[in-house]
Amino acid sequence: MPEITGAKERRNRVRISVDGEFWAELDAAVARERGLREGAAFSCEELEEARVAGERPLAMGRALNLLGYRARSEGEVRERLGRYGYASGTIEVVVARLFELGYLDDEEFARQKAREKAQRYGPRRVSADLLKSGVGREVAAVAVEEEFAGRSELEDARSAVARRYNGVGSEAEARRVYGFLARRGYSAGVCAEVAGEHRGRA
């Protein structure tokens, strides 16, 4: 049966070692309540249950701190809590509670991010950025479709180029226009058409 071989308390937290190896950092009050002290032995199931209970207040604090800076997707919160070393059971409990409290809403997050990004980028780039932010593919697709509904990708691309390039359209500059639009997430057809129009200015 696993044995607690170290329990160092500092600032209302306890760093616990099990069988000679660091195991988890828990809320000190929960650790005391669960009897997690040096020399005590517990089953793996008891330890896992105690870990989730002890990590929960710490992980919740971390998550709320992250969300205090800016809105985040469920995927971002999960990834960050995992990076801090919290157990998967702890992450599940915290994420579920954040949804209950209304702090996590991937659909609203995707709409806001799409609105913000669409001011500078085309649909493909906005979609890629949403996926990178941990939003599900379906949620990202809906947000992008809603944001770009009624807008002309071609006109948006023309406006972006007009703001950036105002010189005579040489062949080399047309290639730069194409690359600029491609990086901004416009479709290949739109990139080619606008680059061709730019070349036609020469």
From TrEMBL:
<protein>
    <recommendedName>
        <fullName>Regulatory protein RecX</fullName>
    </recommendedName>
</protein>
<comment type="similarity">
    <text>Belongs to the RecX family.</text>
</comment>
<dbReference type="GO" id="GO:0005737">
    <property type="term" value="C:cytoplasm"/>
</dbReference>
<dbReference type="InterPro" id="IPR003783">
    <property type="entry name" value="Regulatory_RecX"/>
</dbReference>
<dbReference type="Pfam" id="PF21982">
    <property type="entry name" value="RecX_HTH1"/>
</dbReference>
<dbReference type="InterPro" id="IPR053924">
    <property type="entry name" value="RecX_HTH_2nd"/>
</dbReference>
<feature type="domain" description="RecX first three-helical">
    <location>
        <begin position="59"/>
        <end position="98"/>
    </location>
</feature>
<dbReference type="GO" id="GO:0006282">
    <property type="term" value="P:regulation of DNA repair"/>
</dbReference>
<keyword id="KW-0963">Cytoplasm</keyword>
<comment type="function">
    <text>Modulates RecA activity.</text>
</comment>
<dbReference type="InterPro" id="IPR036388">
    <property type="entry name" value="WH-like_DNA-bd_sf"/>
</dbReference>
<feature type="domain" description="RecX second three-helical">
    <location>
        <begin position="105"/>
        <end position="142"/>
    </location>
</feature>
<dbReference type="InterPro" id="IPR053926">
    <property type="entry name" value="RecX_HTH_1st"/>
</dbReference>
<dbReference type="Pfam" id="PF02631">
    <property type="entry name" value="RecX_HTH2"/>
</dbReference>
